[in-house]
Specification:
Blueprint: H1 3-15, E1 44-51, H2 52-61, H3 63-68, E2 72-79, H4 81-94, E3 100-104, H5 108-112, H6 132-136, E4 139-140, E5 143-144, E6 147-153, E7 155-159, H7 160-165, H8 175-187, H9 204-213, H10 229-243, H11 256-262, E8 267-270, H12 273-282, E9 290-293, E10 303-312, H13 319-329, H14 332-342, E11 345-346, H15 355-358, H16 361-369, E12 373-374, H17 382-398, H18 403-417
Parallel strand pairs: 1-2, 1-3, 10-12
Antiparallel strand pairs: 3-10, 4-5, 6-10, 6-11, 7-8, 7-9
Helix pairs in contact: 1-4, 9-10, 10-17, 10-18, 11-12, 17-18
Length: 421
């Protein structure tokens, strides 16, 4: 999910994190056997819940599906992101779910564990069509309970002129490059060579790429492992940018883009939504002044993968038609059209062969990065763990907490929360 949604989504998730445990459903999310979908065109009414811009645009977009399936009618209900988690949880408890709903990737485990989500039918949906990191967000206890709809990942945005002056005209390739580039930019008069998020909501998404790239495996469905040498080293590396004055801790809200445009910030980590923001803020010609690099290499060059999935509910009134609509949205050509309409990046790998995406130098970098991107495990408690993670990151960046102590604090809090398995 885009960063602008994170605060509202996290707050909503935490506020109702205990609701689902009392939903009265059979325990689910464990090796469910997927049922086949009947052949033929979709028929009947298909109710769909979708959030944000997707909720606003999907109803009109679905007219093409209805043209191909004239006996089917798609009814889309737009749902605000800050109300979505509660609305889905309440619908599950009351067994009054829609046929299909968007599910935030970090919610997948929580809702699958209630037993409310239908297992993904492999006869209709092919795992290998999707980016592996995206598909993994649908897996709970070995079974898939949805389909990746759109994705996003993170890369390094950098000013080409400032990077070239620092000796890195193609951007940083390794951890050592990133540090050296930021230090040289600082020496050349740039206020922040590499701006990083100093804690607060969603900062775990900036830290975890460094942890994964260093070989850290922090969580599985039944084990939490934050207190490791790999995580400690990644935390120390992240902290070094603040200790060395290469990243600030008090950037005002809304200052990132104008400070990057003016050259006060030389580089930062973010997702594809920042392409348009920078082009708009920088004005004519500024797109020639910045570029995007993949995450820098340590043991790997892994980034975070996010986005949103589509799930069909076991209580769906029109289950087969719901899956057929999801399958239609997963067609490569439809994914490209959806990108053109909404700018959501395709989760289907072959959609990136289209020149609309492969021909864009910024998007091509993100497309390549998606081949090496991970998400946290789909466990019911991840939102709670992430919130405590964010608090410890803020102490790390702003109070110079020892990285080993930070790793232990994250581990202790995560262990107290548990995996929900």
């Amino acid at each position: 999910m885009r960063r602008t949604r994170l605060a509202a989504v996290a707050a909503a998730a935490l506020a109702v994190s205990v609701v689902l445990s009392g939903c009265g459903r059979d325990s689910g999310g464990g090796q469910d056997e997927a049922q086949a979908v009947a052949e033929g065109k979709a028929t009947g009414e298909i109710t769909v819940w979708a959030m944000g811009t997707e909720g606003e645009k999907l109803g009109e977009f679905a007219k093409d599906f209805m043209a191909e399936n004239p006996d089917a009618k798609v009814n889309v209900t737009p749902v605000p992101w800050d109300a979505a988690h509660q609305k889905i949880a309440s619908a599950i408890a009351a067994k009054q779910t829609p046929d299909v709903s968007m599910i935030g990737t970090t919610w997948q485990g929580e809702f699958a564990k209630t037993g409310a989500l239908d297992a993904t039918p492999p006869d209709l949906i092919k795992k290998d069509d999707f980016f592996p990191g995206a598909w993994d967000t649908t897996i709970v206890d070995g079974s898939s309970y949805g389909v990746p709809w759109y994705v996003e990942t993170r890369g390094i945005f950098y000013r080409k002129d400032l990077a070239a002056a620092a000796g890195f005209p193609e951007g940083p390739k390794t951890w050592e490059d990133l540090t050296a580039m930021a230090k040289k930019m600082k020496a050349n008069g740039v206020r922040e060579g590499f701006h990083l998020q100093p804690g607060k909501t969603g900062s775990w998404q900036s830290v975890m790429p460094f942890a994964w790239s260093n070989g850290a495996e922090v969580a599985t469905s039944d084990k939490l492992s934050f207190d490791t040498p790999e995580m400690t080293e990644a935390l120390a590396y992240y902290q070094s940018f603040f200790k060395d004055g290469l990243s600030g801790t008090d950037l005002p809200e809304g200052a990132l883009e104008p400070d990057f445009v003016s050259g006060k910030i030389g580089a930062f980590i973010s997702g594809p939504w920042h392409i348009g923001l920078l082009q708009e803020k920088g004005g004519a010609g500024f797109e020639e002044k910045f570029a995007v690099a993949q995450m820098p290499m340590k043991k790997s060059a892994t980034s975070f993968i996010g986005g949103s999935n589509l799930a069909v509910f076991k209580d769906a009134k029109n289950r087969d038609a719901g899956w057929k609509f999801v399958q239609w949205l997963s067609k490569p050509e439809v994914q490209v059209k959806w990108y053109q309409a909404v700018k959501d990046l395709p989760s289907v790998q072959s959609a990136w062969d289209d020149s609309t995406l492969s021909g864009d130098p910024y998007l091509a970098v993100f497309g390549k990065q998606l081949e090496d991107a991970k998400a946290p495990p789909a466990i019911p408690t991840w939102e709670q763990i992430a919130a405590s993670f964010d608090l410890e990151v803020e102490k790390l960046c702003k109070s110079s907490t020892d990285p080993a102590a930070t790793a232990k604090a994250i581990q202790d809090k995560a262990s107290a929360i548990g995996t929900g398995s």
